[in-house]
Specification:
The chain is mainly alpha-helical and 350 residues long. 49% of the residues lie in helices and 10% in strands. It has 3 domains: 54 residues, no CATH class; 101 residues; 161 residues, hpI Integrase, Chain A (Orthogonal Bundle), CATH 1.10.443. α6 packs antiparallel against α7 and α6 crosses α8.
Length: 350
């Protein structure tokens, strides 16, 4: 039901208040109003709004107006187990997003322009690269899709999808560059000597952890989760629990092959604890970063040691299949960038 009420102000100005009410089983389930200077504008608004309200999804959308982007991100971070198990990087990025201007916007009425503005601010004000800005777009999309599926909130997913298409075309976002950084021999000598001295007064054997990472290809989080009881002495293998995976992490346990050098470093560790390296992965990363700063080693991350380890495996003559058993890369496609095969090197088997 819709009505138009004529009103005359103290100054003699005439306005028209348009009201719309929707009832269900005799009860008002929705009402809204708007005031116009002309009656024909009020009539036009009523026609347009009633046509929109005839769509059952519209009432649901209106009911949820007020839910912010920040709330969606928070629900995603707190209620989805895969996020609870995610690495520090993803969780910290989600928290950062919750402290940006876009998090204050309505998640139901969010527009593509709002998202484009956010991405442009990241580039122009925060001075990030398009590859970094792309992370924001990806996190917004996956959070909105996941929360909509769980809560059935009418979130503005289409606005995000359209914004991503525009942002790609305008080069505001881009895929991450493939990182190829490897430590030089001189840098490894510096780090080895530095940790050799530092470890004398530290509870964390960073020198041994660094070399274990280089020889085993294990990520810092994986290194701290390897258990003594999971080792197979005869086969010289270990187990990585909840191995990082793009879709599944919890319960994704995979057995890996130790290299001889990694096995030797592992055997030197104290067997009093359940874990071989019972330390906080964030502390390992922090200590490695601090060492690089002190030694003036530029742009080297702890994760680069995994790239170094994988490269060494191929340089030692291992096949892709053999390297995968050591590194536990999910796909051979990823490993192909570490080696260059030529047709003349393949032995004919037929």
């Amino acid at each position: 039901m819709a009505t138009i009420q004529k009103r005359t102000g103290k100054s003699g100005n005439v306005t028209y208040q348009a009201k719309i009410r929707r009832k269900l089983k005799g009860k008002i389930i929705h009402q809204e109003s708007k005031t116009f200077n002309k009656k024909k504008n009020a009539e036009l608004w009523i026609r347009n709004r009633e046509a929109a309200l005839d769509n059952p999804n519209e009432l649901d959308r209106i009911k949820h107006i007020g839910i912010t982007v920040g709330q969606v991100l928070k629900v995603y971070q707190e209620e989805f187990d895969t996020i609870k198990q995610a690495g520090r990087s993803k969780n910290s990025e989600l928290k950062r997003l919750q402290n940006t201007n876009i998090s204050e916007l309505d998640a139901i009425q969010l527009t593509s322009a709002d998202i484009i503005t956010h991405l442009m601010n990241r580039l122009e004000i925060d001075r990030v690269k398009p590859q970094t800005a792309n992370n924001d777009a990806v996190y917004l999309r996956v959070a909105f899709k996941s929360v909509k599926a769980k809560k059935n909130w009418p979130l503005a997913i289409e606005a995000i999808e359209n914004a991503i298409i525009i942002a790609k075309n305008e080069k505001l976002i881009a895929r991450s560059d493939t990182r190829e950084r490897r430590p030089t021999s001189n840098e490894l000598v510096k780090l080895d000597n530095y940790f050799k001295i530092k470890d004398l007064n530290s509870s964390i054997p960073m020198r041994e952890i660094m070399w274990f990472a280089i020889h085993s290809s294990r990520r810092q989080e994986e290194i701290t989760r390897i258990e003594w009881n999971d080792n197979d002495d005869q086969a010289q293998t270990g187990l990585v629990r909840d191995l990082k995976h793009p879709r599944t992490k919890r319960g994704n346990h995979k057995r890996f092959k130790y290299t001889n050098a990694a096995w030797e470093v592992m055997q030197q560790q104290d067997k009093k604890n359940k874990f071989i390296f019972p330390f906080n992965p964030a502390t390992i990363s922090s200590k490695f970063t601090d060492a690089c700063k002190i030694l003036e080693i530029s742009d080297l991350h702890f994760h680069d040691l995994r790239h170094e380890a994988t490269s060494r495996c191929f340089e030692a003559g291992h096949s892709i299949q053999e390297v995968q058993l050591i590194t536990l890369h999910d796909s051979w496609v990823v490993l192909k960038r570490y080696t260059h095969l030529r047709p003349e090197e393949i032995t004919a088997k037929l």
